[in-house]
Amino acid sequence: MTRFFTDLFNEEEANVIFFGIKINKKSEQLLDSLRKTSWFVECFDVDSGKNLLENVKIYDIGNVNQNEITTKIKEITGRKKIPLMISQTHLSTLYAMKAFEGVSLIVFDAHCDLKNKYVDEKVVVMDDRDDKTMNCVTWLRRLVENRNLKVCLLGIRSCDEDEVEVMKNKKILWFTSNQIKSDIRRAKDVLRKFSEGEKIYLSIDVDCFDPSIAPAVHYLEPNGLSFREFDELTEAIKGEIVGIDLNSIACSNEQSEFVATKAILKALGKITLVDNK
Ligand SMILES: [Mn+2]
Predict the structure, then answer these.
(1) Is the pTM for the entire model greater than 0.90?
(2) How far apart are CA 73 and CA 162, in angstroms?
(3) Beta strand 16-22 pairing with 58-65
(4) How far is the CA of 29 from the centre of ligand 1 (A)?
């Protein structure tokens, strides 16, 4: 197996543990393809003159099932390491967040994922009981209805009135794609204040990007973030990154995979602590 980004480190010395979520044969092929793509992404950032992986030693443990996420992450954080997960569904983030306490959540997404129930032939229902309230468009609703959590959503451009109500009631901080495009300085200022001194779990839904740069998503929402906008916002995040995921990449597509792995690399560049958490 080609390992994600590198095979330089063993599990013991690594401070970031990577794993993919296997849903079916196709998702395993996609994960393998992403692993191969990651080797072609340059770790040196020419603008900052920094190696984005300078504080990062990644070890790839392979793929795990959706129902193993919470246990796996608890095991990783218990060993003072940072989990990095790639999944085809955003529902995985719900199970990841169950492994953390006292963590704030930053999500890049075109959608709020705050629906109470949603049925669509494209929505992969992950629950064995065929539960229509547990999927990639309801996961954040399920998370915030049971927990007091600081949440910031970035890049929103598709949601309904009910979801806006939930954002207001739950005091979720959110920026639409248009708000980011018209005043990114303000978005960055607010994001900086939101994240300062916090432990941060960062979740990147690939559909936050404009479909012109990342077309391999389930819902091709126009007017998405440019890579530069994503990069600038990520750069503004303060605090301590305790977990990262990238999700909702729908199928193997070279262009989208490159954008996805580059986005992960930028997120990894935010890791400042090595083993002294
Ligand atoms: Mn999502």
Answers:
(1) yes
(2) 32
(3) parallel
(4) 21
| CATH C-level class of 16-268 | alpha beta
Helix axes 227-236, 254-268, angle to 10 degrees: 20
Distance of CA 30 to the CA centre of its chain: 17
CA atoms within 13 A on the CB side of 132: 7
pLDDT tier at 121, thresholds 50, 70, 90: low
Answer yes or no: are the C-beta atoms of 201 and 242 closer than 8 Å: yes
Q: pLDDT at position 275, please?
A: 47
Regarding beta strands 44-45 and 50-51, do their DSSP bridges make them parallel or antiparallel, or are they unpaired? antiparallel
Spatial distance between the Cα atoms of 30 and 217, rounded to a whole number of angstroms = 13
What is the residue whose two structure tokens read 């479909």?
211
Residues in contact with 72: Cβ distance below 8 Å, sequence separation at least 6, in sequence order: 19, 64, 83
What one-letter code names the amino acid at 19?
F
Instruction: Return the half-sphere exposure (C-beta side, CA atoms, 13 A cut-off) of residue 80.
Output: 7
Domain ranges in the chain are 16-268
Distance 196 CA to ligand 1 centre (A): 24
Cα 95 to middle of ligand 1, angstroms:
14
**Ligand 1 is an ion; residues with CB less than 5 A from it:** 90, 109, 113, 205
Question: Quick one: tokens of 205?
Answer: 């839904």
18's tokens: 């990577």
How many Å apart are CA 173 and CA 93, to the nearest integer? 18
Identity at 223, one-letter amino acid code: N
Q: End-to-end distance of the chain based on CA atoms, in angstroms?
A: 31
CA of 152 to the centre of ligand 1 (A): 13
